[in-house]
Amino acid sequence: MHLNKHFSEVAESYLFSDIAHKVAAYQAAHPEADVIRLGIGDVTLPLAKPVIAALHKAVDEMGDKATFRGYGPEQGYDFLRQAIQNYYAGRGIDLKLEEIFVSDGAKSDLGNLLDLFDVNNTVLVPDPVYPVYVDDNVMAGRTVKYMAATAENDFLPMPDENTDADIVYLCSPNNPTGAAYTTAQLAQWVQWAKAHNAVILYDAAYECFVTEPGRARSIYEVEGAKDVAVEVCSFSKIAGFTGTRCGYTIVPTNIVSDGMSLNKMWLRRQTTKFNGVPYIVQRGAEAVFTEEGMKEIQHNLDYYRNNAAVIAAALDEAGVWYCGGKNSPYVWMRCPAGMKSWDFFDWLLENAHVVGTPGSGFGPCGEGYFRLTAFGDAGKTKEAAERLKKALATLK
Ligand code: PLP
Which of 2-16, 135-149, 192-206, 380-394 has the lowest mean pLDDT? Predict the structure, then answer.
């Protein structure tokens, strides 16, 4: 047999293990230091009570012969697909039920979708970027091109006359930069994709954080986007499902190329290679969209938003440039005094006992930047922001 040689072309992912090693070494040398972690993008608040109640109820159903469920529909139960359909309808977006596919999270779908595309397609991803887009494509042997996201373009790259690709990844609000496209900007991407027979894979995992009018929560806010865009979304960040695992992908029936329907291909792919998300988890996800579920979830999102505002206020006071934090749980700051990302990481750990994520770990354009997350405990975030501000003041 021969192995997939492209796995040897995937860059080793050292980012989070390097961070963990550095923090462990620092703690070993300074056991008294109270290190606060604003690094990893995982949530910290528990599942909402209506979700827990729905999960319990579903567990009981599974223990009763009359209500037990075995294999479910691969594309998800209608009760959850309808709830997702209503969630979009509430924002004026019309989705057909057959366009909605429930999954075990955005990460799996982002990789699995590539089964539908020829290996010779050229892929365009932003730099810096959520590393999964790149690795999925390199593993499959595809050529990846990068578009620079910089302070000059507000970390929101736009297509121009030289932009040439078959598959484009857009992530908005963005991980790691926190930047969020406006609907008008996405309209330009949709127009570009139509003109180039390209597809947009739109990662909306952080849509729930968008509050500013004019910033898009879904690419389908753009007229005609259903002709060219697949949208991948998740319950991870909206409802704390990072460990529970549930997401969904919208594959519009309009997307047709080479006489083939992307929606039909995805259905075929899923029914062949996927056996659905657990019934219990889907009932929990359904509860997210109930009135009580949404109320509690909004409360949790406000908690994280407030953390972001606390970090942003500290940077404002320190006179440090940043973006994100408004429509996103990520604050993307420029490292002070011209420091490189990893130098600032060491400096911040040493001087404030605060851990963040070096921007260079997300791509070359991230060099000189640093990501802080708002997903932590409110008290600790306040303390970290205070220490950050004090430490930054010493550089003046
Ligand atoms: N997309 C982005 C941009 C993310 O940052 C993450 C997780 O951090 C994911 C997708 C993965 O989401 P899920 O937990 O649904 O797999």
Answer: 2-16
In CATH terms, the fold of domain 5-47+292-393 is Aspartate Aminotransferase, domain 1 (3.90.1150)
pLDDT 10s digits, 340-373? 999 999 999 999 999 999 999 999 999 999 999 9
Q: Classify residue 50 by its DSSP letter.
A: H
Cα 106 to ligand 1 centroid, rounded to whole Å = 6
Q: What is the pLDDT of residues 19-78, one digit of tens each?
A: 999 999 999 999 999 999 998 889 999 999 999 999 999 999 999 999 999 999 999 999
Q: Where are the domains positioned within the chain?
A: 5-47+292-393, 69-290
Cα distances from 195 to residues 59, 264, 372, in angstroms, run 49, 23, 37
Collapsing DSSP to helix, strand or coil, 247 comes out as strand
Note whether 75 and 223 are within 8 A (CB): no
Cα separation, 122 vs 300, in Å, equals: 39
Nearest to 380 by CA among 356, 354, 357: 354
pTM for this model (two decimals): 0.97
Ligand 1 site, CB within 6 A: 41, 105-107, 130, 171, 175, 203, 205, 234, 236, 242, 247
pLDDT digits (tens, 9 = 90+) for 29-39: 999 999 999 98
What CATH number belongs to 69-290? 3.40.640.10
CB neighbour burial string for 187-224, b if at least 16 within 10 angstroms, e if fewer: bebbebbeeeebbbbbbbbbbbbbeeeebbbbbbbbee
Alpha-carbon gap, residue 61 to 280, rounded angstroms:
9
Instruction: Give the closest residue (by CA) to ligand 1 atom 11.
Output: 107
Q: Which helix (H) or strand (E) holds 301?
A: helix 291-318
pLDDT at 66: 98
